[in-house]
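Probable cytosol aminopeptidase structure dump, as promised
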Amino acid sequence: MSTQLLFADADSFVTPLLTVFAVDIASGTDANPLPTLLTTSDVLSDAASTVLASGEFKAARGETLLLHRPEGLKADRLLIVGLGNVKKLSPDELRIGSGTAVRFAKSKSIRSVAILFPEDRALSDEHLESLDCMPSARSLVEGALLADFDPDTYRSDRKDRSMEGITILAPAQQKVTQDEIREGHTEGMIFAAAQNFTRSLVNEPGNVLTPTELGKRTATMCRAAGLSCEVHSTAKLKELGMGAFLGVAQGSAEPPALIVMRYTPAQPAPGGKIAALVGKGITFDTGGISIKPADGMDKMKYDMAGAGAMIGAMQAIAALKPRIEVISVICSAENMPSGTAYKPGDVLTAMSGKTIEIMNTDAEGRLVLADGLHYAKTLGATHLIDAATLTGAVVVALGKLNSGLFSNDEETCAHFHQAARTAGEHFWRMPCTDDYRELIKSSIADIMNTGRDRWGGSITAAMFLKEFVGETPWVHLDIAGQAWIDEHHTEIAKGPSGVAVRSIVEWVRALAA
Ligand code: BES
Ligand code: ZN
Ligand code: ZN
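structure tokens r here:
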């Protein structure tokens, strides 16, 4: 699915569903004014005037109002979508708004929708700068395409409600250049396609998406995108001495996969930076011998969401062509209990040479990442980023509205924060200062793979990773809370979210600048 961008008049546009955005303009002084439509079309405003005058529609974020046969318009229906209060307006609200429009259409089996690009002339000057054309167009497209994704691929009665047409309708006389809108539209399609690819991988059940299959699908994507890709398994892991990664993999009948992707720019910017994207790719996490409770274990197919995010990010990077070399290392395995599985009390030797006492086989993600991060450094990485559904503890700490962000470098961390803001994603920094190192000290080996109690669980996991990162600037994203959506949202389906893809790509672009 892609979106079409048209510079045309909304009044005469023929479509089953025309969407226009509305904002709540209430301020401290003026109590309950009627919402404002983000259009300069008088015909459209007139068509909506009666229902708006009723005061029933408040333009709250995600609120919708449908009119059939709107007077004076060629559209069959007019959908008004609220963006919330004008003071909080940003491209992020547009992403939610266009997503809400597409989810609405899909729920009614309407396959084609036109979304009116918000006309800023309808806003007062003080709010103009919150809606720059390029990011607005990008967000609109992202929201619409992300909303088109549904996770019911395995249902025989699948109601194939995929959209057939999504048109972004921008007024021809928009005072800012059409080029900016075009650029945003193109970028939006790239980001959304990458994020949806991630979601499609994360959505796959563990019996289908084994480490080997993840390698195959990644290689297929790389071929299409023009990236180089190597997929290795047990023999190579042994050759490299990846004892931590091998320890996790040894309990499963499925062989592990070490996937290495590479993007080489035509003209790298001076500085010789190499960004490395490392992903946790546990295709199913039973917990191993320290087995998880049965309740909710089915969801542990999404324990490769960090790997999925990196694979999606690489697809977008290949399309956006930043002037920086990027490598990605995916460590994929299945964490199973069996006669060959690793056990609590075992001591593993990581590729870096560090020895690890296993306290809990369910803390497997940090083990595969330890070898992945170290390997990325041997490949020349100057900047490291990893993403992982690493701990339940990060969900306890931050809930499901922020992912955990850990870093050993202020500048790199600040860059990531800015990248996340641009991408419209939410990360909250957590500490990983050296005073926490005590918690993973072992009397048997160099370090343990968990702390002795459950306090600060996401921090002990980050401290563990930090052991393998050394002085290289590094960002660690613990996405356990946000990689899977359990709650109803107006703008996106339940299931895999594809979180972190957009921020990671923005971070790579910022490094190249
Ligand atoms: N994959 C889990 C983390 C997880 C939990 C992801 C919930 C998504 C939702 C990870 O491998 C794990 O099991 N971590 C343990 C670590 C503990 C044994 C120190 C955890 O968080 O309980
Ligand atoms: Zn686990
Ligand atoms: Zn896990």
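Residues 285, 287, 335, 362, 364 surround zinc ion (ligand 2) (CB under 6 Å).
lmk if u need the other ones
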